[in-house]
Design a protein that fits this description.
The chain is of the alpha+beta class. Among the domains are: 186 residues, no CATH class; 57 residues, no CATH class; 113 residues, no CATH class. The chain is built from 15 helices and eight strands. Helix 12 packs across helix 14. It is globular, with a radius of gyration of 31 Å. It starts with 34 loop residues before the first helix and ends with a helix.
């Protein structure tokens, strides 16, 4: 009997591809990444990051009614630059010749909501394709360089776009315009020089008439022409901040990308094996919490009627991570301080106006009826939360402690358990807990330090008349960086130790439950022996 061979079926070009070829040892062969595809994926990652940041910036600024004061596109581009660590410069002026007013200032603030969304989008688009491909150290470095170049060009474009005029609110222009609601008896800028003076027109009142009425123009005074201030982005600080942002995101991705086919030196290196589980656990808890708060805060605020709901939704989109990191740092013992500075240069116009303004009667001097008030310095700490009620002072630390213990438990669950040949653990539970405490302490110390540095807000302004400096203003909000480093170490160590013990207890309970399900007689014998 002859055997007729069955002809092989031809695969249709439209059928599903076959499985990847196998290596001689039977493992799947992971295809390499071609240089062209490597570059395209790096460019796509940068494009995704900036598209996400720009979208969040536009939504947040629209909700806070930014289009009423400036161009929404330019403001969004400036917000993206600020989100990576850049600074904005302000400048404006009015009048001319002998009576000219000038204002110069700068603002530095990081909207971490925009920063975080861009980091998540970039990390996902950069490392996700590597789950199906293998990349060596050289191509991975080239991939990062292409991303850095694209980020550099994107930030240059945003910095060039972010040049626009900011229209001043009426509450500010009223103080600078004669007859405004905040101008005082002298009107306009005269309220700053001598205040109300006396009823008969003393020296302070005369200065008010001089500076408030001789500016010329239809506005009637120097302040009449000061209706907007131009802003621009400092390119140098933006590029440096963007480089630091990219390095942080890439470094964190190399630590926590669990399924990417990274080079062997990265996968088995000490930074990833030691800090990787702790960084991955902290990132998972933080992103999960922020996703819930973003959703509840945004849609909850939009559900409120009126402009206040939109304003709250915009603040949530732009600055929710700032608020959360400040709350967590305060709960672990890191204070935040708000301080202001107001002064005039020694001698020159500042000294002369201070002397003449003090002679202007009861309301005279700088900061008279139409002057600028100085807020009191404040410090936000765990002790000061008692002013808001004992519920917040007790509930907030408990909430933070629960999150810290969860980070410690996830760190223990994502750390491979070293065992002996008979399957028993190589280390005792307390030794493992100590190891996890040390690793999580380093991660939390770095996290709180970055939170304090990124959450710092500062602004300054200098007012000049006739080209001479008259007054300097400044304000800043900052946390204690040294205390953040120390308290991060302590909080991380306690969380790692307690979380590791909690995970060991949970694993023991699960193991006993599994044994009881597989062998019910074991449970019966154990119960009888206990009796």
């Amino acid at each position: 009997m002859t055997h007729t061979p069955v002809p092989a079926l031809k695969r249709s070009p439209h059928s599903s591809p076959s499985r990847p070829p196998l290596r001689p040892d039977g493992s799947a062969r992971i295809p390499d990444v071609t240089p062209r595809r490597n570059a395209v994926e790096a460019l796509a990652a940068v494009l995704a990051a900036f598209a996400a940041m720009f979208t969040v910036a536009v939504l947040g600024l629209y909700f806070v009614d930014a289009p009423s004061t400036t161009s929404l596109g330019s403001a969004a581009a400036a917000t993206v630059c600020l989100a990576v660590g850049g600074s904005a410069e302000l400048s404006g002026g009015a009048g001319g010749g002998f009576l000219s007013l000038g204002i110069e200032g700068s603002v530095r603030a990081v909207p971490l909501g925009v920063t975080l969304v861009g980091a998540v989008a970039f990390g996902f688009a950069f490392f996700r394709p590597l789950r199906r491909r293998r990349v060596a150290a050289g191509p991975l470095a080239a991939r990062a360089l292409v991303a850095a170049g694209a980020c550099f060009l994107s930030l240059l474009a945003c910095a060039h776009w972010a040049r626009e005029a900011l229209r001043l609110p009426e509450s500010v222009t009223d103080r600078l315009t004669p007859g405004g609601s905040g101008a005082g008896a002298s009107g306009g800028l005269g309220g700053l020089f001598g205040g109300a003076g006396d009823a008969e027109g003393g020296l302070g009142s005369g200065l008010g008439d001089l500076f408030g009425g001789m500016g010329g123009g239809s506005g009637g005074g120097l302040g009449g022409g000061l209706t907007d201030i131009g802003f621009r982005i400092d390119t140098g600080s933006t590029l440096l901040g963007g480089l630091a942002w990219l390095l942080v995101v890439l470094g964190l991705g190399l630590l926590i990308a669990r399924r990417a086919n990274l080079p062997t030196a990265v996968m088995t290196g000490r930074p990833r094996t030691m800090a990787g589980p702790a960084a991955s656990a902290t990132t998972t808890v933080a992103l999960s919490l922020l996703a819930v708060l973003f959703t509840l805060g945004t849609f909850g605020s939009l559900a409120l009627a009126g402009d206040k709901g939109l304003m709250a939704a915009g603040i949530v989109l732009l600055a929710l991570p700032n608020l959360l990191l400040a709350v967590v740092s305060v709960a672990v013992g890191v204070p935040w301080s708000f301080a202001t500075q107001t002064g005039s240069p020694a001698g020159g116009m500042g000294g002369m106006l201070g002397m003449l303004g003090g002679m202007g009667g009861a309301g005279g001097g700088l900061g008279g009826a139409g002057g600028l008030g100085t807020p009191k310095d404040r410090t936000l700490s765990l002790a000061s939360l008692g002013e808001a009620g004992p519920a917040l002072q007790v509930g907030l630390p408990l909430f933070v402690v629960a999150g810290l213990v969860l980070c410690g438990a996830l760190t223990a669950s994502r750390t491979p358990l070293r065992v002996k040949r008979d399957g028993t653990p190589l280390e005792s539970r307390y030794r493992r807990a100590s190891t996890h405490a040390i690793r999580l302490a380093g991660v939390w110390s770095a996290l709180l330090l970055l939170a304090v540095l990124a959450g710092k807000i500062s602004g300054s302004a200098a007012i000049s008349i006739m080209g001479m400096s008259m007054m300097n203003l400044g304000a800043h909000l900052a946390g204690n960086a040294g205390l953040a480093l120390v308290m991060g170490l302590l909080a991380g160590a306690v969380a790692g130790f307690a979380g590791s013990l909690t995970h060991d207890a949970y694993r023991s309970v699960r193991a006993r439950a599994f044994v009881n399900r597989r062998d019910p007689s074991h449970y019966v014998s154990s119960s009888q022996s206990a009796k």
